[in-house]
Amino acid sequence: MKKTWSLCNVTLINRVKLTSHLSKAPINFTLFLLLLCVLIIALFVGRYPIDPVTVVIILVAGIMEWIGNMIAVITGVKVSFFWSIRHTWPTAMNTVVWDVRLPRAMAVILAGSGLSVSGATYQGVFRNPLVSESILGVSAGAGVGAALAILMDQGNSVIQLSAFIFGLLAVGMTFAISRVYRSNPTLVLVLAGIIVGGLFSAIISLMKFVADPYSKLPDIVFWLMGSFSKASSANLLPIMPIFIIAMLIIILLRWQLNVLSMGDEEARSLGIDTKRFRPIVIVCSTLLTAAAVCIGGVIGWVGLIIPHISRMVVGPDHKDMIIASILLGGSYLLAVDTICRTLASVEIPISIITSILGAPIFLYLLYKAKKTWS
After folding, report:
1. Contacts of 335 by beta carbon, 8 Å cutoff, 6+ apart
2. Using the 8-state DSSP alphabet, how is residue 51 labeled?
3. What is the DSSP letter of 345?
4. For the packed helices 216-225 and 350-369, what is the interaxial angle rounded to 10 degrees?
5. Contact status, residue 242 vs residue 291, Cβ threshold 8 Å
6. Does residue 124 contact residue 260 with C-beta atoms inside 8 Å?
7. Residue 190's CB: how many other CB atoms inside 10 A?
């Protein structure tokens, strides 16, 4: 009976692998175009308005100039393209697009993609649609690190580094606690994450209690509500390798999430070493979440609702759902960030909007799912 079940699973997986990319390629291309459109909108909308055509021209001119500089560095010959665009726009527009809005937009896209992929991976690993990216305590740990750095009156780069380190520390504590009890590794890991998250949340409350109410406390509260107002190329570049490496590993291993979501016994019968595979994807998901939190603060609901939307758009196959989560997560969070910085005269913390939008969206998804999940 087990062999028959395993052969059926293999046949199903192979059939999905053969037809997935052919059937879902137009959808993924559409999602990519959606992300590109949201990016263009984010670049021309703001307190310093720039028309969309000028934004596109500025981007194309900057890319052509960068290509010319790279060719000059490699060959030593200065290249002048005959189709080069003349700079007829003010220098301030060039600065706003390339130095202010584009780095922030890239940080938001990376954070949204990282949180979405992390949530989708956790939901597959733990076989639970209610699991989010903060289930192992990484967000609470990052909050402690950021609050500690703010209390010590450190700069933005130190705050980011401290948040990242403490986020990894929280997940390390979760793994350490789960190793003590070996009855049900998956359940114990989730319960350990709840324990560690509660502990670090209490530490955050203690830090807010002892913080100066006129200077340090507002900074801690504002960071915990999430914001990309301080995002720049300088604090984005150190995080980029972490995003790229962790994301690539999950993308390369995403087909195995289909097998793991069937259960440990079925996964082992199909040749998946669950004791080795599960920690790898959990560590990569943790790195994505920690990196996203350290550049944008604690942002809720993204890693919970975007995987569900991706599952509705492209189906439950992780080979397509992970790619869809990357594109949808980046588009969604970038759209929300654009709303936050343009809706009022003062920038709204991004977690407020994600919570206001996330709760009814998730309620609607539960209604559509009719208490089923595959």
Report:
1. 38, 41, 42
2. -
3. S
4. 30
5. yes
6. yes
7. 19
* Phi-psi map region of 301: left, alpha, beta (phi>0 left; psi -120 to 50 alpha): left
What is the number of other CB atoms lying within 10 angstroms of the CB of residue 52? 13
- For 169-301, list the strands marked E by DSSP: none
Closest CA to 120 of 315, 265, 338, 293: 315
CB atoms within 10 A of CB 119: 29
Q: Give the Å distances, CA to CA, from 186 to 163, 264, 356.
A: 26, 10, 31
Q: What angle do CA 369, 361, 262 make, to 5 degrees?
A: 40
Per-residue pLDDT 10s for the chain (374 aa) are 333 334 334 444 444 454 445 567 788 899 999 999 999 999 999 888 888 888 988 888 888 888 877 777 787 777 665 456 667 778 888 899 999 999 999 999 999 999 999 999 999 888 888 888 888 999 999 999 999 999 999 988 899 999 999 999 999 999 898 888 766 777 888 889 999 999 999 999 999 999 998 889 999 999 999 999 888 888 888 899 999 999 999 999 888 888 877 766 776 776 677 778 888 999 999 999 999 999 999 998 999 999 999 998 998 888 899 999 999 999 999 999 999 999 888 899 999 999 999 989 888 887 776 544 44
Which tokens hold the place of 25?
Answer: 């390629």
Measured CA to CA, the distance from residue 352 to residue 357 in angstroms comes to 9
Give the distance from CA 329 to its chain's centroid: 7
CA 281 to chain centre: 15
Which residue, chain included where needed, has tokens 């948040």?
163
Angle between helices 102-126 and 318-342 in degrees, nearest 10: 140
- Asked if 143 contacts 155 with a C-beta cutoff of 8 angstroms, the reply is no
At what angle are helices 156-180 and 185-210 packed, to 10 degrees?
Answer: 140
Structure tokens at 108: 């938001």
